[in-house]
Design goal:
This protein has 154 residues and is mostly helical. Helices cover 64% and strands 3% of the residues. The chain contains six helices and two strands. It has a two-stranded antiparallel sheet. A hairpin with a 3-residue loop joins strand 1 and strand 2. Helix 2 runs parallel beside helix 4 and helix 3 packs across helix 4. The radius of gyration is 16 Å and the shape is elongated. The two termini are 25 Å apart.
């Protein structure tokens, strides 16, 4: 997905900014991977604290459980996608240093918290996110990814 976003975004900007946009996409997945491994997975799928954030499973370690690593990588792609959506929205409009800060905030706090609210407990086969109790259904992650990645005002 990152390669696809890179091709799309570099094709939509002026030639002088194409490298900047491509680097943003590479940095997105690198930062998201490190942050999601250390902090994000725990905030998303750890034991819920007051229904707001996960409080366990930081520094994810799936051990020898292939299904847990598969689940982790699947969720990591969503985290990277939410961050990359912002890259396309701010192309040619934001300094690289400011974008790095936004990328870290999305990957570390905003995306995992929103995802915990909606998908909390899914790693254990539960559906304990508070919107689920109100009847909310998320279709293929679209609500989580796009609401977390839609932070740019018009």
């Amino acid at each position: 997905m990152q390669a696809g976003f890179t091709c799309l975004e570099t094709g939509l900007v002026r030639a002088k900014n194409s490298i900047n946009v491509a680097i943003k996409n590479v940095v997105d997945i690198c930062l998201a991977s490190i942050i999601f491994l250390t902090l994000g997975y725990g905030l998303m799928f750890g034991v819920s604290a007051f229904g707001l954030i996960g409080s366990t499973q930081f520094l994810f370690d799936g051990g020898s459980k292939i299904h847990m690593w598969t689940f982790f990588l699947f969720q990591l792609t969503f985290c990277g996608t939410a961050t990359t959506i912002i890259s396309g929205a701010v192309a040619e409009q934001m300094r690289f240093s400011g974008y790095l800060l936004v990328s870290v905030l999305i990957s570390a706090i905003i995306y995992p918290v929103i995802a915990h609210w909606i998908w909390g407990g899914n790693a254990q086969g539960l559906h304990s996110g508070w919107p689920n109790h109100l009847g909310f259904l998320d279709f293929a992650g679209a609500t989580v990814v796009h609401s977390a990645g839609n932070l740019k005002s018009p």
